[in-house]
């Protein structure tokens, strides 16, 4: 075992502070990565504060990890010391259930192992990317093809990127489709960029009028202030697909009614408390669907990273030192970030 510096929450109200963790020595199939940057996902905040009531403490969040390989086991085939590498939300899964066999490890029927907060159903805690280094089985390590100078912009792709890319691909978003993205935060701004790159007509729904200009720069064709009923009515029954990234409970019926016949709204936000339930009539009269989607599999995450590298897509980031994290969480809650905080891990000392 090796001692590694990290930032951890010790309880729901403690905030995050310096903490030492132990990492295993790399085994034959393991890659050891020196973490250079780690994105700050709203899930980190939900977890650090036990908002989902399943946090194991001490909690070291962070699942948007990019860095450099500093050691590789004997049986590692695709990574060498010095390579750039990424780690997203998962570090292991059973490998033999139907979901794993189809490359959908996020739906592992025996429960995947999260990069932080351990196996979902009991077992040892895992520690995430707010730390100097991490040791991960090669099959859960991603290759980075972006230029090294772009690394801070790549980190958020490992969660915000794949969580928006996967449903956009699953619901076959492309040219000729009118697609709504709800919420312009970390996930939402990647949703706008990716749906635009896939050729869709993109409408961004936001509660923040000040984000309208940015949204257009990011690739939105139209912007709708979701608190304005007149603006909302203009899109009634017109959207093929909606990606809803909002991190708080809200009236999802007002968005469902914007779907045309056979349209789908997919929820990716996981609020602390429930949304008011959907109205049955809103669903049945136009055969609308309400769906959910969880991150994406490893193969699809690599596909997304390669798509973004080829298209020159990265996240819009504000790079911060690690001791800014508690302030960053407060600003994220106020939607005051354009559009992802990324920790420069060299500031961990
Ligand atoms: P974020 O950066 O905080 O963005 C959330 C956005 O939602 C905000 O920027 C804001 O956009 C909007 N919003 C916030 N409060 C709102 C309210 N009360 N009513 C309406 N809109 C509101 O968060 P994120 O990192 O993108 O994460 C979003 C959610 O996805 C979180 O719950 C996170 O845990 C979850 N998540 C899920 C998965 C998955 O696999 N399904 C993966 C990662 C994250 P505007 O200012 O534009 O309105
Ligand atoms: Zn995340």
Describe, in plain words, how this protein is organized in 3D.
- The chain has 349 residues and is an alpha/beta fold.
- 23% of the residues lie in helices and 27% in strands.
- The chain has 11 helices and 17 strands.
- The model has no long low-confidence stretch (mean pLDDT 96).
End-to-end C-alpha gap = 20 Å
User: How large is the share of residues in beta strands?
Assistant: 25-35%
Q: What gross morphology would you assign?
A: globular
CATH class of the largest domain: Alpha Beta
Helix and strand element order:
EEEHEEEHEEEHHEHEHEHEHEHEHEHE
Regarding quaternary structure, what we see is single chain
Q: What labels would you give this structure?
A:
349 residues; six-stranded parallel sheet; Rossmann fold; seven-stranded mixed sheet; binds NADP nicotinamide-adenine-dinucleotide phosphate; binds zinc ion; 17 strands; Quinone Oxidoreductase, Chain A, domain 1; globular; alpha/beta
Briefly say what this structure is.
The chain is of the alpha/beta class and 349 residues long. The chain has helices spanning 42-48, 98-101, 151-154, 160-170, 186-197, 212-218, 229-233, 253-256, 280-284, 298-311, 325-333, and strands spanning 2-9, 16-23, 30-39, 65-72, 84-87, 90-92, 113-114, 133-137, 142-143, 178-182, 201-206, 222-225, 239-244, 259-267, 289-292, 317-321, 340-344.
């Amino acid at each position: 075992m090796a001692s590694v510096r990290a930032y951890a929450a010790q309880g729901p109200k403690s905030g995050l502070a310096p903490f030492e963790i132990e990492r295993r020595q790399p085994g034959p199939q393991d890659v050891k990565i020196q973490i250079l940057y780690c994105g700050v996902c709203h899930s980190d905040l939900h977890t650090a504060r036990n908002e989902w009531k399943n946090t194991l403490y001490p909690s070291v969040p962070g699942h948007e990890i990019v860095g450099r390989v500093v050691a590789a086991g004997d049986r590692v085939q695709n990574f060498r010391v010095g390579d750039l590498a990424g780690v997203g939300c998962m570090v292991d899964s059973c490998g033999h259930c139907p979901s794993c066999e189809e490359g959908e490890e996020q739906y592992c029927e025996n429960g995947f192992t999260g990069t932080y907060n351990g196996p979902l159903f009991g077992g040892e805690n895992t520690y995430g990317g707010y730390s100097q280094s991490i040791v991960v089985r090669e099959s859960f390590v991603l290759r980075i093809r972006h230029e090294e100078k772009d690394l801070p912009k790549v980190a958020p792709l490992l969660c915000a990127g794949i969580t928006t890319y996967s449903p956009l691909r699953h619901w076959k978003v492309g040219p000729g489709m009118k697609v709504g993205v709800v919420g312009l935060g970390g996930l939402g701004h990647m949703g706008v960029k990716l749906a635009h790159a896939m050729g869709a007509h993109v409408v961004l729904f936001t509660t923040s009028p000040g984000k309208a200009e940015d949204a257009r720069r990011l690739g939105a064709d139209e912007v709708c202030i979701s608190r304005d009923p007149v603006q909302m009515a203009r899109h009634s029954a017109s959207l093929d697909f909606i990606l809803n990234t909002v991190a708080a409970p809200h009236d999802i019926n007002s968005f469902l009614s914007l779907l045309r016949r056979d349209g789908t709204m997919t929820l990716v936000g996981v609020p602390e408390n429930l949304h008011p339930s959907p109205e049955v009539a809103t669903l049945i009269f136009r055969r609308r669907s309400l769906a959910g989607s969880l991150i994406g599999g490893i193969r699809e995450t690599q596909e997304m990273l390669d798509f973004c590298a080829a298209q020159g897509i990265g996240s819009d980031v504000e790079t911060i030192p690690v001791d800014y994290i508690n302030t960053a969480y407060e600003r994220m809650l106020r939607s005051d970030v354009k559009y992802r905080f990324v920790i420069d891990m060299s500031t961990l000392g």
